[in-house]
Structure of TetR/AcrR family transcriptional regulator:
Amino acid sequence: MGHGRSPVAVARSWANGDGDKNVRNCLCCQLAFPPQEPGMPRAKLSPRKMPTQERSRATVDALVQATADILVRDGYAKLTTNRIAERAGVNVASLYQFFPSKEALVAEVNRRHVKEQRAAAREVLTTRKFDTLEELIRTLVALGFAAHAVDPKLHHALTEQLPARPARKWDPEDAPMVEALGRFSTDVPDPELALWLIDTVSHAVIHRAVVERPESLTPGLLQEELVTLLLRYVKRK
């Protein structure tokens, strides 16, 4: 969202073997990055239309970035369509041309945020060869923590300040995660259920760390403990 190095860039660096070895080999895992939006009717959260021309895409990008900026700086309570339009440098009529409400813009911020994370995970899974299950878990766990360390203030806003979110549902984009787990011998009876449990636990730990222990987003004991927990779950015998 323009506040730091993107998760995709982080993933590409790791996949190519670049960057600090301790960071690449550290530990924390979000095996899936489900699209979770504020708990409102989907129709109200959907854009009115998608931009088709370069100029309109630039307008939408500016509106989304302005929404993220205000969320980080002032919080959800002070977010209004007028403030978003003013910060984006467009009139409010242009905003309503693409989005029906501020909630729809926040949903778009979250959608892009999640899309970046999921793209980063997919890139790692498709460009790196993992010799052991532990290596896979450690790499993806590190990716999850690193992604949330890119812009912790935005993560905090999306985690703490928005309305309740719907329950996580299976998505076809989760398939590479299940396939990656399936390449190794595990003790889980249902890979899809295992993915849901791993994702739920990892997401909860990382999001609470963003809010309560932001210093733990760097490689350290919390990441090590989460990796240990996940490995003991998938290799329980």
Summary: The domain at 55-100 is CATH 1.10.10.60 (Arc Repressor Mutant, subunit A). The chain has two domains: 55-100, 114-236.
